[in-house]
Write a structure and sequence with these properties.
Blueprint: E1 2-3, E2 6-16, H1 20-29, E3 33-39, E4 43-51, H2 57-84, H3 92-99, E5 123-124, H4 130-136, H5 144-152, E6 157-169, E7 177-183, E8 195-201, E9 209-210, E10 222-233, E11 238-248
Parallel strand pairs: 5-6, 8-11, 9-11
Antiparallel strand pairs: 1-2, 2-4, 3-4, 6-7, 6-10, 7-8, 10-11
Length: 252
């Protein structure tokens, strides 16, 4: 794709309906521009592009010439050594093997503690886990640290105060829903943290509701979420969770 001799790279990203402006803003900060948008029932496909970086041919040519000179010099040096019968210089590998201590000679180092993925029944909370507290406070739900968190803690259980930011039927079903979960209390002006999602769930049987369940639940409902980390979808920036328990709460 080219305009006025400028070549572009293009890509298509997906985002949940209602969050298009946040997604567009994120990509524009990285130098992309929107070409088109196509709205579906639940998601919007956004085609974006940006100019391809120009190859610095002059520097490539200079670098290639320098490489050729180096090769010629090495060949000449090799011929000179063969003619003089000089001994080859000590190789870096040999030098390293002589100076590097063996494993038995190395001082003992205490292993760095890490949070194991085999944490059993431990439930991670923002009060006790700095990683969870950090992602819940992010201002960009496509931040790369969310993918890293999902990879590190996949299969573990997390708990936090959240809210229902969007709720749509799953593939047209009447009793199955895709529920968007935000961090903290519901707000019409801000939505911190990842775009968590319960996908293809029944609000009666799958949420495992506790507490005083309201007559109806939907956008704006506040709840305390306990869920298992599933996966992060980089294309849509959705962070999938498997519900363990949903305790409905009032706004503090």
């Amino acid at each position: 794709m080219a305009d006025d001799g400028v070549k572009y790279e293009t890509r298509t990203v997906r985002t949940i309906r209602g969050t298009e402006s946040r997604t567009v803003s994120k990509w524009e900060k990285e130098g992309w521009e929107v070409v088109s948008q196509s709205q579906g029932k639940l998601q919007t496909e956004i085609t974006i592009r940006r100019p391809k970086p120009k190859t610095p041919w002059r520097l490539v040519a200079i670098g290639g010439g320098a490489f050729a000179v180096l090769v010629i010099a090495l060949i000449a040096n090799g011929i000179s050594r063969e003619q003089s019968g000089a001994e080859p210089a000590e190789t870096p590998a040999a030098s390293a093997s002589e100076t590097t201590p063996s494993p038995s000679e190395r001082p003992y180092q205490e292993p760095t503690p890490t949070e194991s993925a085999e944490a059993g029944d431990v439930v991670l909370t923002p009060e006790g886990n700095a990683d969870l507290a950090r992602v819940l406070g992010l201002g960009d739900y496509c931040d790369s640290s969310i993918a890293a968190f999902a990879e590190k803690y996949r299969g573990q259980t997390i708990a936090f105060d959240g809210n229902i930011g969007a709720m749509n039927s799953h593939d047209g079903a009447t009793t199955r829903y895709d529920i968007l979960i935000g961090a903290g209390d519901f707000s019409e002006t801000s939505a911190p943290g990842p775009a968590f999602q319960f996908r293809d769930v029944n609000t009666t049987s799958d949420l495992h509701s506790t507490g005083n369940m309201p007559d109806t639940i939907g956008v704006g409902t506040n709840l305390h979420v306990t869920a298992q980390v599933d996966e992060y979808e980089s294309n849509s920036c959705l962070f999938l969770l498997e519900p363990v328990e949903a305790a409905f709460r009032s706004t503090r």
